[in-house]
Structures are given as structure tokens and as C-alpha cells.
Amino acid sequence: MRTTIDAAGRIVVPKSVREAMGLTAGRQVEVFYADGKIEIEIAPADVAVEMSESGIPRIVYQDDVPELTDEMVRDTIESTRR
After folding, report:
1. pLDDT tens-digit series, residues 15-63
2. Is the separation of the CB atoms in 57 and 51 below 8 Å?
């Protein structure tokens, strides 16, 4: 797909690519330049490990992250079966 860089240096990521990556407005990404290519990845979430009252460690997000829905889980499971 071809896109354009505007005067401020912004690039429009085509809708089909945003949807495939699960990108939404405000979602943080990491941008790299490697081997003559620009690569865009979803930024990893900042997390901390805390101990629950029962003594079991749990991961707690430090940032807002998109809600994980039942549909997303089903779609992921189905995509691995293909």
C-alpha cells in the first residue's frame, strides 16, 4: 500500500493495516529504522508484578490498555487453528 507523508512528518497508516494490528487512536507504537525500512510495532505495556492477598504474583498494567474481550480471545484461538 502506498501512503503519503505530510509536512509535519506524519504518515497515515491505511485502515486495513490498522485493523489487522489492532491499532486505535491513542495507542502507543514503537517506530524503528532498520535495513532501510521503517518498522512499526505495538509498544509493550508497562506492567508491575504485585503479590495478591493469597500470595500469588499477578501482573498489573501501569497504563491504560484496550479491554480484552471474549470475541478477541475466540478470534485468536480460531486464527491459530487455521
Report:
1. 999 888 888 888 889 999 999 999 999 888 888 999 989 999 999 888 7
2. yes
Report the alpha-carbon distance of residue 29 to residue 38 in Å, rounded: 12
Burial of 18 (0-12, 13-18, 19+ CB in 10 A): middle
Q: Please tell me the total count of domains within the chain.
A: 1
* Domain extent at residue 61: 15-81
Query: Is 36 a member of any domain?
Result: yes
Cα–Cα dist 18/26, whole Å: 12
